[in-house]
Design goal:
heterodimer, A: about 240 residues, mainly alpha, 2 domains, 13 helices, about 0% strand, B: about 130 residues, 7 helices
């Protein structure tokens, strides 16, 4: 019989192991999420990330080796963004009717995200590099990283802040919006898309198709608005 | 199905190329989404045909963020002395942005009288 270490050395050199592990971890996390009645605290992204981080730590696997397999899943983010055009098209007339609320909520949500993040970090004495990475963090990752890099900030730190923001938004949105008694699925979804980009949008799609569509719209519009305003707003805090 | 996936990848590719050529401040896939939307407006018959493919991809949108999330975990420890300030900034800004955005949306919708059929339904369900 072949030694286990030989099998391991084969597996650790192939994308198959960590690609499969990512799907298995997500399937387990999704099952827990459904068992918990889709409770926001049981967010499947968060649970899958924790499971995989534990697996990487236990097997002493670096992120580079993990990403060799996981990159195939990561790649699908691009096509998924393009595919958002289909539900958006189906709801375009509805979105057009709500043009004024959409514009108002976009500007208010986008400025609030940037100003509160920078104001809080500035008041608590965070250094310049942190402020530069925080400014665009509510935008989708590629935009946020590009904006931060353009300002001289760290794209890696920005990516970490973007993902964390998404998870916070996905977990907090439902209890927060229920407490505020907001029942309009368009308002709920759009605000989450603006504040918590794709991870918030993923949660919104699981809650209600209208919320998901408007979240996707919020994510897309805030990607553009953040790229335009974050470089100016951040200068007020430097 | 295969044709629709090809079409989606084609729009992403065009988006990526156009963003780089014109140095636009948006990611390629976002421009690809706008261009696909334009195509659907020009050819409305394509929309219902693409619907199952789009729904299939978007149903598992959460899964697609897992690899990036795992990458984030490795960097949390490196935040160092600024960790608490960053945590406070992220939580406060995300919660306030969601609250402000949703309140402004529903307030303006009520003001201009564009309340939605779903909202009426939710109220009726109470």
């Amino acid at each position: 019989m072949t030694d286990f270490s030989e099998i391991w050395s084969y597996l650790s050199g192939q994308p198959l192991l960590w690609l499969t592990a990512t799907l298995v971890a997500y399937a387990a996390a999704d099952m827990l999420y459904r068992r918990a009645g889709m409770a926001p605290w049981a967010n499947p992204v968060l649970i899958a990330v924790l499971l995989l981080s534990a697996a990487l730590w236990l097997t002493d696997t670096g992120y580079g080796a993990y990403f060799e397999g996981a990159q195939f899943i990561h790649f699908m983010l691009g096509p998924a963004t393009v595919a958002l055009a289909v539900p958006l098209h189906a709801n375009l007339r509805r979105a057009g009717r709500a043009a004024l609320p959409l514009a108002g909520a976009l500007v208010a949500g986008s400025f609030t995200a940037i100003l509160v993040a920078l104001g809080t970090a500035w008041a608590l004495g965070a250094e310049r590099g942190v402020l530069l990475a925080l400014a665009p963090k509510s935008a989708t990752a590629p935009v946020a990283m590009g904006v931060a890099e353009g300002l001289g900030g760290s794209p890696t730190l920005t990516a970490v802040l973007v993902i964390t923001t998404g998870i916070i938004g996905a977990v907090a949105a439902t209890p927060l919006l229920n407490a505020l008694r907001i029942r309009d699925w368009r308002a709920r979804g759009f605000a989450v898309g603006v504040a918590a980009h794709g991870i918030g949008t993923a949660r919104a799609f699981q809650v209600h198709p209208t919320a998901g569509t408007f979240a996707g719209l919020g994510m897309g519009l805030n990607a553009v608005l953040t790229a335009l305003i974050a470089p100016f707003v951040v200068t007020w805090f430097l | 199905m295969l044709g629709h996936i090809t079409l989606i990848l084609l729009f992403q590719l065009v988006g990526e190329i156009a963003v780089r050529a014109a140095q636009l401040p948006v990611p390629g896939p976002v421009l690809g989404m706008v261009l696909l939307l334009a195509l659907l407006l020009a050819r409305p018959a394509l929309a219902p045909a693409m619907e199952p493919t789009a729904r299939g991809i978007l149903a598992h949108l959460s899964l697609l963020f897992v690899p990036a999330g795992v990458g984030m975990m490795g960097h949390l420890g490196a935040l160092g002395a600024d960790g608490p300030a960053i945590a406070a900034a992220l939580v406060l800004s995300t919660l306030s942005a969601i609250a402000v955005g949703a309140l402004v949306f529903s307030g303006l919708a009520r003001l201009v009288g564009t309340e939605d059929e779903d909202a009426e339904q939710a109220r009726a369900d109470d």
